[in-house]
Amino acid sequence: MPDFQAWTTRILKRTETALESLLPTATIAPERLHAAMRYAVLGGGKRVRPLLVHAAGEVCSAPPENLDTAACAVELIHAYSLVHDDMPCMDDDVLRRGKPTVHVQYDEATALLAGDALQTLAFRALSRAGLLADPAAQVAMVHDLAQAAGSRGMAGGQAIDLASVGRQLDRSELEFMHIHKTGALIRCAVVLGARCGSALAAADIEHLDRFGKLVGLLFQVVDDILDAEGDTATLGKTAGKDAAHDKPTYVSLLGLARSRAYAGELLDQALGEIEPLPASQRLAELARFIVHRHF
Fold this sequence. Notes:
By secondary structure, the chain is mainly alpha-helical. It has 16 helices and two strands. It has one domain: Farnesyl Diphosphate Synthase (Orthogonal Bundle), CATH 1.10.600.
């Protein structure tokens, strides 16, 4: 089996190629909108969600082509959310992935439309006829992604986040927010990958779902630590913006030391969930990567 670095390099290349092919070219009308969509998606980001799709797909021996489509769908939803989150009516940020945000590079109206179009493109990809041999399984994937992206998932979590500015949330409130805002799409990436191949036992799906939930929280805890400790050049986005905007974070609630300890606890729990599963090495490596990506 290739080492983790070689595997991630291969999956990242596959994902970039698949996204490049799926996105409309900037020569097709409306050219400016299509250029903004490509600007928002291509050539940047850690692609953690596509990596999770492919890693989960190894558990069920999924065909790589199916995983490419699922990975693109979840990454397009993630990219659209970043475009909208960066806009002045939301987090009002000017830097993303080391370059100007979409509304700065283009304009607010184009950014809004680009996000809308990326969201619909994700569902177009996932609903393609014949993606899976079992139509019911494919419909379940569309349902999973819609649930993760909507008011009961990512969008709802962002609404809670905006409503929490200036408030000190307790731990259960903070986790509820992040299970939705960040965790829902990460959790969905794992489940989508697991649906792309041979049918798994219900117990195995539950292990993967709990793993995804724990990794989603883990990702946010680490993100809060990096926001507090990192610099803008390293992060590729504005460092310290959560504190500047008086947003509740794990660091503001627990402090750095306890946040680090909590990340370790979540990692151990996540690894425990997938220990009984075959071919789960990549999922375990990804969970460790999320913890140690900068600290």
